[in-house]
Specification:
The chain is mostly helical. It has a single domain (4-190, 210-434), classed as MFS general substrate transporter like domains (Growth Hormone, Chain: A, Up-down Bundle). It has helices at residues 8-40, 43-59, 61-70, 73-96, 102-130, 136-162, 166-186, 197-202, 206-219, 221-242, 244-251, 256-280, 286-307, 311-324, 326-339, 345-357, 360-378, 386-393, 399-418, 423-426, 428-431, and strands at 195-196, 440-442. The longest helix has 33 residues, at 8-40. The radius of gyration is 22 Å and the shape is globular.
Length: 448
Amino acid sequence: MEAGRSGMLGFTIIWVGQMLSLLGTSMTGFALTIWAWQETGQATALALVGFANFAPVVLFSPVAGAIVDRYDRKRIMMLADLAAGLPTVALLLLYSTGNLQIWMLYITGAIAGTFQSFHFPAYSAAVTMMVHKKHYSRAQSMLATAEFASGFFAPIAAAVLLTIIGIEGIMMIDITTFMVAILMLLLVHVPRPPVTEEGRRSMGSLWKESLYGFWYIIKYPSLLGLQLTFLGNNFLAGIYFTLLAPMVLSRTGNNSIMYGSVMSAGAIGGLIGSIALTAWGGPKRKIHGVLIGWTLSHLIGAVLMGIGGDLTVWIPVFFTAMFVSPMINASNQAIWQSKVAPDLQGRVFATRRLIAQVSSPPAMLVAGFLADAVFEPAMRTGGSLAPAFGWLVGTGPGAGMALIFIVTGLLGTIFSLGVYAIRTVRNVEIIMPDHDAQKPASEPSTAT
């Protein structure tokens, strides 16, 4: 492991840049969510914005992973940051000239999502080469800290700045922060990984290398089972998280300050949880962090959020749910970084992301349909479900979405606990050997 700017210091420099970029992106996302809700008043519209941004991430992940393993990961991160930020420039021009429409968010979101598909595998694989494996959980916790810090400050800052500098000013801040992130990347060195025997065998055409991640994961039932666990959980979580903004806004009379307060409370919980996890390092058996984390996330973040009808419940509940959530991804990431050889991680991690998150885009579409066409009408006064569940979630705007939270949260709790019965997943860390048990086939590749 190289010292200096290719080690923990280099990772920290990248981390600072990414945290600032996340802050700008989150502020823009918050402001545009409020704008889209005020323009349409429909959960489906917000779901489609999320779908347009997320679907390309899933669709292009295999090709992105193959490219990440072929070329310099630092350069790929820089290009991905630049290209993903350009749609914000387009949105700024459209909004400032009075030409922005909802459907334009779908297009710009799809463009940004396409380039974001390159960022995750490049970033994840770069971290593996920059820090020692005993620090994988801590590094992932630092990344989660950046996400939750932006999640805390962004809603508050955006809600205040909307009244001062407007959406145009917020997007200008976003553009500045992604340029800072690129500058930070220029300051560090990301080592190239050594080539393993399996990595050499996997080489070939771009098509072959794009499909390799699927073959690799299918070859190991424990890894496949772990990803199918995320597939199911992400589908259920995707439904209720898509409805979080419209549910809170519906039940508070479109009060953006109240919505921002809920989001900020969750971000504070996630931030504190990430800091605690950074100091702790996570459970020794990382699979417990994954399964227990998912169970608590569903039970607290969905079931109790649905039952709660105002800020006095939402704020402490969402805080607690987000406090435990960093443990899920940090534990999962540590497992994969330990088991998969670094020269294969671009392809394997991209495919892993596709398998885990392919259910999220349809979940967003299902969420919009269930809310607008089924549950919201059924939970109005006199609706078909109001007599049975009105005592639990009340009636009127937002009640149907609250009931969706409860149903999907209970299903997620049962599913996550049930995975403990599957030995190949429960014992993934015992069954799978660490990648450093393999000897490299050659010196690091010099391709750029």
